[in-house]
Amino acid sequence: PAFDLVVRNARVATASDSFVSDIGIRDGVIQQLGHGLAAGAREIDAAGRVVTPGGVDAHCHLDQPMAPPVRMADDFDSGTRAAACGGTTTVIPFAAQVKGQSLRAAVDDYHARAQGRAHIDHAFHLIVSDPTPEVLGRELPELIREGYTSFKIYMTYDDLKLDDGQILDVLEVARRHDAMAMIHAENADCIAWLTRRLEAAGRTAPRFHAHARPMLVEREATHRAISLAELIDVPILIVHVSGREAVEQIRWARAQGLKVFAETCPQYLFLTAEDLGIDDSYKGARCVCSPPPRDKQNQQVIWDGLSDGLFTVFSSDHAPFRYDGTEGKKPNGEEVAFQHIPNGIPGIETRLPLLYSEGVLGGRITLQRFVELTATNPAKAYGLHPRKGTIAIGSDADLVIWDEGERTVRNAALHHDVDYTPYEGMALRAWPGVTIAGGEVLWDGQAFHPRRGQGRYLRRGRPSLLPARPTSPRPPAA
Ligand code: URP
Ligand code: ZN
Ligand code: ZN
Ligand code: ZN
Which UniProt keywords apply (predicted)? Predict the structure, then answer.
């Protein structure tokens, strides 16, 4: 046969177009688009269903070592299995530098964690927590040249946060070497001060997590991050934007002509601070993440930003911790004060179905915008486009065939190793019916077909959302 696989009668959706076509796949790559394609060794009739590029989840945490006894529930096996069953075919989790550790050692460690386990293609963002002269002068530039073309920096968390001077130092490296800097923007000192006050007042239930991180701490840090980036003259991407106040800062920056990109996540569309508890019940620990979910009005602000172009990327921020047991939300089995609850919620499998159901089928965003936010833009922002993030001749054969129809989110039907989903019981209007990665069916709507260890590491290129480098010498400044 001419092809390994032919998907027939697909309503192909890209970030810009929608057209009916067959898709001819050979050697894991899309070889031909058109009608009446020659036979494939395997054929799938899409029967007019929507086919989108496989999702690129550019913000997820897999197998990141935590302070004992806490441990992430998903490694590269279970995490990429859940991703594939939810329509995601590429993940970019983090290789986090521990203070005192070299960046190289961090990268080697994460490669070892993914080796032989990942079912889908993957790359790593760096997390720079210790910008020593060696890191700034040699390691980071070297790693960027090797294809680690993005890194995350934190303005909060004691073991990760950088001060403003350090942020300027790393942003300067991003500018000089063409990397995308992702920033977690929350004011650490405000959070610490509020936490001490809450604790002194005996307000330690999970719901007080949201009281310790009001929107103004995100707004202030977002503005500061924007200012630091303006000083260096470098694009940045603000991750996990939660609501109106940070959105306003980003709109302001854009109006100044600054290249400030932004990411948001499902929790800011579908959860509110009430999910952290309306009383002092510990159950709310399941939805503790940072920044915390806000309220209904802020959900609408996030929807508006998704539809009008404010947001560049829609990621899961999957940070998997079990609720029961000793390693997750209850360290050593205890109901701890909110500031000791591991931050983060699972969502790698539900990211695309939630946005497709409530965004596309709910009439809030177009199908093209859905593809742009979940696949094309993340691939562009992090140097994977056009190999990833689109349906085109020469692109990897990573595809999702969508099944429309009523379905209820049940954790029992998900494929992560977390013992709950924050979205339990939600009614959906669509779910991936087939997920194809590298030309192979990983999810057929009923069963997962493992490809353990066959997910490839992706050496990334220059982020294509960065401004073009001048090819000729710049004109002299006026
Ligand atoms: O609470 C969250 N989001 N935890 C994951 C780590 C991060 O800051 O993204
Ligand atoms: Zn056809
Ligand atoms: Zn973060
Ligand atoms: Zn995160």
Answer: Hydrolase, Metal-binding
On whether the CB atoms of residues 86 and 432 are closer than 8 A, the answer is yes
184 C-alpha vs ligand 3 centroid, how far in Å? Answer: 5
- Distance, in Å, from the CA atom of 192 to the CA atom of 54, rounded to the nearest integer, reads 40
d(CA 291, CA 378): 21
Distance CA 343, CA 21 (A): 44
The reported pTM is: 0.97
Where does residue 335 rank: exposed (0-12), middle (13-18), buried (19+ CB within 10 A)?
A: middle
**Ligand 1 atom 2 nearest Cα:** 344
For residue 237, which phi and psi values (nearest 5 degrees)?
Answer: -130, 120
Residue 109: partners with Cβ closer than 8 Å, 6 or more residues away: 95
Q: What is the pLDDT of residues 284-314, one digit of tens each?
A: 999 999 999 999 999 999 999 999 999 999 9
Residue that the structure tokens 């939630």 belong to: 354
Structural contact between residues 438 and 84, judged by C-beta atoms closer than 8 angstroms: no
Contact in structure between 368 and 307 (CB atoms under 8 Å):
no
Tell me the two tokens of residue 121: 């293609």
pLDDT in tens, 211-261: 999 999 999 999 999 999 999 999 999 999 999 999 999 999 999 999 999
The residues with which 44 forms a beta bridge, in sequence order, are: 7
Using the predicted structure, report yes or no on whether residue 477 has a pLDDT greater than 90. no
Would you give the distance in Å from CA 156 to the centre of its chain? Answer: 19
Q: How far apart are CA 266 and CA 57, in angstroms?
A: 12
The helix (H) or strand (E) run that includes residue 91 is strand 88-96
AA letter at 122? H
* Residue where the block lists tokens 């300027």: 168
Q: From CA 313, how far away is CA 374, in angstroms rounded?
A: 6
Asked whether 233 and 256 are in contact (CB, 8 A), the reply is: no
Nearest to 293 by CA among 309, 324, 321, 317: 317
What does the alpha-carbon distance between residue 99 and residue 96 come to, in Å, rounded to a whole number? Answer: 9
CA distances to 7, 37, 40, 237 from 1, in Å:
14, 11, 5, 45
Closest CA to 136 of 186, 93, 179, 188: 179
User: Rounded mean pLDDT of 422-436?
Assistant: 98
The finding on whether 290 has its CB within 6 A of some atom of ligand 1 is yes
Evaluated on CA atoms 435, 436, 437, 441, the torsion sign reads: positive
Mutation probe of ligand 1 site: the residue of 61, 218, 238 with most atoms within 8 A of C-beta: 61
Sequence-ordered list of residues with C-beta below 8 angstroms from that of 474, at least 6 positions apart, any chain: none
For ligand 1, whether the C-beta of 344 sits within 6 Å is yes
Q: Which of 213, 202, 336, 345 is nearest to 282 (CA)?
A: 336
